[in-house]
Specification:
Blueprint lengths: L1 E6 L2 E4 L2 E4 L1 E5 L2 E6 L4 E6 L4 E4 L1 E3 L7 E2 L2 E2 L4 H10 L2 E7 L8 H11 L6 E7 L8 H9 L4 E5 L11 H13 L3 E5 L3 H9 L3 H4 L4 H5 L2 H18 L2 E4 L5 H12 L3 E6 L1 H5 L22 H13 L4 E2 L30 H10 L6 H15 L17 E11 L18 E11 L2 E5 L2 E2 L12
Parallel strand pairs: 1-6, 2-7, 8-11, 11-12, 12-13, 13-14, 14-15, 15-16, 16-17
Antiparallel strand pairs: 1-4, 2-3, 4-5, 7-18, 9-10, 18-19, 19-20, 20-21
Helix pairs in contact: 4-8, 8-9
């Protein structure tokens, strides 16, 4: 007899929807079939059963410009579990005077309170050729993806084209993934210099200095370098139709290039900057147009965009208090708790996204890209028993006060959604059920990739 059986649900996989039970033994999926018997049985009739969601881009306890993102690894992982997320990939916090392995050791301490499983991208700051051994050591410690910025030169985070070429060559040799925040810093600096004092004091100016061509230019350069070096490369938080066109062009040139987008670039537009609280939407890249939203939805549905992430980087209203200019705000938006409900309600139910594609873009493809598959990202015997039982009919409204994310506003406040996470199971343990968090602090484990 199995330890746990999820009975009677519609199991959603990338290949199809199955009417089958799912059996769990210990921390692993043991069998799919019907009827199966277990010591404990969860009646999932009328529910959808998904593989546990993987959010491959979050920022818990991230220092930003004298502030720290408002979710730490405990509160952030609790919010994630409430939304059906069973694994996250966060980032080390890079510095030019520290090594990436040292950064990793610090973040492993930060992450100990997590109730869900976690991995890390190694953030690369101040890269130089002599630091290749750091990447090799970090890879041996289980980090197989490394984050670069083509922007933020003023803070020292930017990696210029020459060092980026050398870094890509090194990562190709150790079969690691180059993860890139792609915006053209030269364009940002040039456009910023043209702003008047009055324009610096308007939130909508963020869209002027970080336009879609800024993203597209950087994706073009990164894509060419990826094609030239053969590195596996990934573009984070793609926001524009122009950026997607350049990503597709890079693939035509032979680049092994994957891309992600985020709910904010599917659902929000730059019009929000004109609202009385437009400053709360500070983030980079900037929000775009409804036309860009539509192209990105199409890209998700077709597979041109590989998967979805949230870039969860939350700040409170106090932290985002307006200080007279848009560049004085911490950048980032909350979202880890809402990834699956938003994509289901605004994507699947509106005919923008096939149901089975949802299992691909919230779980399987990220697991494959980042070396977690088949332990994570699927519902196969031998895989970790990470599952989401989702009520496809529950109608609710997004309200910041009712969410577990440690923020006092939501970009989607009062949006009516249909469909909500009912239960979340992590390695065979029910960690969230019908509004109650059951997972114990510190139960999450580091995922050595």
């Amino acid at each position: 007899m199995y330890d746990l059986v999820i009975r009677g649900g519609s199991v959603v996989t990338p290949a199809g929807v199955l009417s089958t039970d799912v059996a769990v033994f210990g921390e692993k999926i043991a069998a799919l079939g019907a009827p199966l018997e277990g010591r404990e049985v969860i009646d999932a009739a009328g529910k959808l059963v998904f593989p546990g969601v993987i959010d491959p881009h979050v920022h818990f306890a991230l220092p930003v410009g004298g502030s720290v993102s408002s979710d730490d690894f405990y509160s952030g992982s609790v919010a994630a579990a409430c939304g059906g997320v069973t694994s996250v990939i966060d980032f080390t916090v890079g510095a030019s005077d520290r090594s990436i392995p040292d950064d990793l050791r610090r973040r492993l301490e930060d992450a100990k309170p997590s109730i869900i499983d976690y991995a890390f991208h190694g953030e690369v700051v101040g890269w130089r050729p002599g630091r290749v051994e750091e990447m090799r050591e970090a890879a041996a410690l289980g980090v197989k993806s490394f984050k670069f910025f083509t922007a933020y030169g003023a803070s020292g985070r930017r990696t210029d084209t020459g060092p980026l070429l050398q870094a890509f060559q090194a990562l190709a040799e150790i079969d690691a993934v180059a993860v890139v925040h792609a915006e053209d810093d030269s364009m940002i600096e040039t456009l910023s210099a043209l702003l008047s004092n009055e324009e610096w004091g308007r939130m909508e100016s963020v869209a002027k200095v970080r336009p879609d061509v800024c993203e597209a230019s950087a994706v073009n350069t990164v894509g060419w370098l990826a094609a030239t070096t053969g590195v596996r490369c990934h573009i984070v938080h793609l926001s524009s139709a122009l950026g997607l066109a350049e990503a597709l062009h890079a693939r035509e040139r032979g680049a092994d290039l994957s891309v992600e987008t985020c709910p904010q670039y599917l659902l929000l537009t730059s019009d929000v900057y004109n609202a009385p609280e437009g400053h709360l939407y500070s983030a980079a890249p900037a929000l775009r147009s409804a036309e860009d939203n539509a192209v990105l939805w199409d890209g998700l549905a077709s597979g041109d965009i590989d998967f979805a992430a949230t870039d969860h980087c939350p700040f409170t209203r106090t932290q985002k208090e307006w200080k007279g200019a848009f560049d004085r705000l911490p950048g980032g938006l909350p979202g880890v708790e809402l990834l699956l409900p938003l994509l289901y309600s605004e994507g699947v139910l509106r005919g923008k996204l096939p149901l089975c594609e949802l299992a691909s873009i919230t779980s399987e493809r990220a697991a494959k890209r980042y070396g977690l598959f088949p332990r994570k990202g699927c519902l196969l015997p031998g895989s970790d028993a990470d599952l989401v039982i989702f009520d496809p009919e529950e109608v609710w409204h997004v309200q910041a006060g009712a969410l577990r994310m440690n923020v006092d506003f939501s970009p989607y406040e009062n949006l009516e959604l249909i469909g909500k996470t009912w239960q979340t199971i992590s390695r065979g343990e029910v960690i969230y059920s019908e509004g109650r968090v059951l997972g114990k602090k510190g139960r999450g484990v580091f995922l050595n990739r």
